[in-house]
Amino acid sequence: MTLKQLASTRKITSFHPPQRTLMGPGPTEIHPRVLTTMSQPAIGYLDPVFVEMMEELKALLRYVYQTDNALTFPVSGPGSVGMEYCFVNLVTPGMKVIVCRNGVFGGRMLENVERCGGVPVIVDDDWGKPVDPQKVEDAFKANPDAKLLAFVHAETSTGAQSDAKTLTAIARKHGAMVIVDAVTSLGGTPVRVDEWGIDAIYSASQKCLSCTPGLSPVSFSQRAVDFVKARTEKVHSWFMDMTLLASYWGNTNRTYHHTAPTNSLFALHEALLLIQEEGLDKSWARHQRHHLALKAGLEAMGLKFFVEEKYQLPQMNAVLCPTGVDEELVRKSLLNEFGIEIGAGLGPLKGKIWRFGLMGYSCRPDNVMLCLSALGSVLMDLGLAIKVGEAEAAAHQAYATLHAADAQHARKKVAVA
């Protein structure tokens, strides 16, 4: 090390990130229990205690995915690695794959098909629209030799949710397997792998599961497993080869594959346990409840949603930036003045929308009210005709209406019992 290098390192001190309220497209805030679990002592990735925890982790993932698939586990890597894991195992050179593209991440699916040597048949929908089932049906009729359908359940770039149950049923009718991107939907809106007949699905730890980034829960049906085992050529990735990973994540005779991120897996175990304790149905309902309150407040400010109401994702709210407002300035003001992070638009939506995330531990009433208050303040400073307290009052009214509806539903259940 040179004297200059030594001098520069002496200026470095411990890193302490500022406290942020994370209301963007991810990552989310992490529950204190998960943070505490991450700080526990490291142990070996083949330690019998760790192996026992792995089995519990797989069971918890099966619950969240609503599946009995034996091959359900977290890949070491972000959601993009989970995506590549599914494609590199299931797409063989020359295979025809119908790929649905209605945002950024459908486009990434397409690139994976191409890199695996597949022959893509692209089904395009406008950004902000869900995947059109009729277009998928038409694509299968025009391409009866298509072996695979790939689509994004919850498009993070637009806040639009597609009908995974219907799309999967179309694929199965035509004898094709299905890959589903559930990065933003898992834990926030219903995902039912077995009921819908999904063959391969992937998600990410840092969205509605509210864990640290760097893990991608995946699940393969037995049909998908059998397909990979019957391949005549090796999977074009050593690290993501299903058969090799299964030797580590299987039930018996585990063999070394890679050094698993033990403490991150501790954290995911705790994050999934929190969802189990809350109840999956209640987690879905919580995301919907706070979405409706945030929506009421934003609309009271005169803001409009980018996605049609019936296709809106509760956990990813895409809102049009008002004409004449510098959307980047608004985001910077929220971050610098209030410590709130929201997301910008991607691709053709850059500069046109804001993305408000309500995911996992970030999906709380205090975050909803703080966001509305701060956003109203920033927009008022920019000259928009916004009255103090109107957005917050609208959100409170939405909460009151939802509470009354819940109480009435509870009374009916008691009466029936």
Automatic annotation (TrEMBL):
Pfam families associated with the record: Aminotran_5 (PF00266)
Cofactor(s) of this protein: pyridoxal 5'-phosphate
SUPFAM superfamilies for the chain: PLP-dependent transferases
Keywords, sorted A to Z: Aminotransferase, Pyridoxal phosphate, Transferase
GO molecular function, one term: alanine-glyoxylate transaminase activity
Residues with the N6-(pyridoxal phosphate)lysine modification: 207
This protein's record includes keyword Manganese: no
Coiled-coil boundaries: none
GO biological process: glycine biosynthetic process, by transamination of glyoxylate
InterPro entries recorded: Aminotrans_V_dom, Aminotrans_V_PyrdxlP_BS, PyrdxlP-dep_Trfase, PyrdxlP-dep_Trfase_major, PyrdxlP-dep_Trfase_small, SP_NH2Trfase/AEP_transaminase
EC number(s) reported in the record: 2.6.1.112
Location of the Aminotransferase class V domain: 51-345
Superkingdom as given in the UniProt entry: Bacteria
EC class: transferase
PANTHER family the record matches: ALANINE--GLYOXYLATE AMINOTRANSFERASE, AMINOTRANSFERASE CLASS V
Family: Belongs to the class-V pyridoxal-phosphate-dependent aminotransferase family.
Protein name, entry field: (S)-ureidoglycine--glyoxylate transaminase
Species for this entry: Usitatibacter rugosus
Gene name of this polypeptide: pucG
